[in-house]
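Course assignment 3, question 2. Fill in each field.
Student: A.L.
Task: Predict the tertiary structure for the chain below.
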Amino acid sequence: MSTGNAGQIVILNGPPRSGKSSIVEVIQETFEGPWLNLGVDAYIREITPSRYRPGVGVRPGGERPDLEPLIPVFYAALYESIAAHSRLGLNVVVDVGHHNSYASPNNILVDCARRLFGLPVLFVGVHCSIEIIMERRRRSPIGRENIYLTGSEHEPVPAPVLAWQREVHIPGIYDLEIDTSSTKPLDCAAMIHRRLENVRERPTAFERLAASESSE
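Answer field:
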């Protein structure tokens, strides 16, 4: 499932709690060969210094303008690492939440696409209903998002959660789209596997993004 000697890259893009991590686990456990996880959560927890977190995980809405000058280079470093792994023949799966809703929009996704030019990339949009996302937040709180986990009587769905739903799938250019509201991780991974086995349409989503002037 790769082009030439390069390892295949699968990028899962969607909001927090949309089920990306569960799909990553299935891919790593069931797909042929080693699949390295270079996702955002690992990058934040293990690589980014605590005083610069959430780094690439900054939510939509310009919440941390003080960090924004660093976010493009953080993403650049992450994607250069993805490219390096692929060029060495290693398959890579990445779970991310791209958006362009910063205090100063910077079209990071386009830059990331250009950094993977010439490599086999499958860009997957991971959708999930807001109801399921809120249910998952109530069941399993995680670190920095705890304050937005359950909402309140006056704000049943917190504004940051709604912002993720609205912003993460702009511009919506994908090779494959899946909905975890009704599809289990194992079946989502199977859809990805089938897509990788088929002849790729050209240009791919990342080729289209790399050729664009902006991600809007």
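Instructor remarks: The longest helix spans residues 71-87. The domain at 9-211 is CATH 3.40.50.300 (Rossmann fold).
Grade: pending
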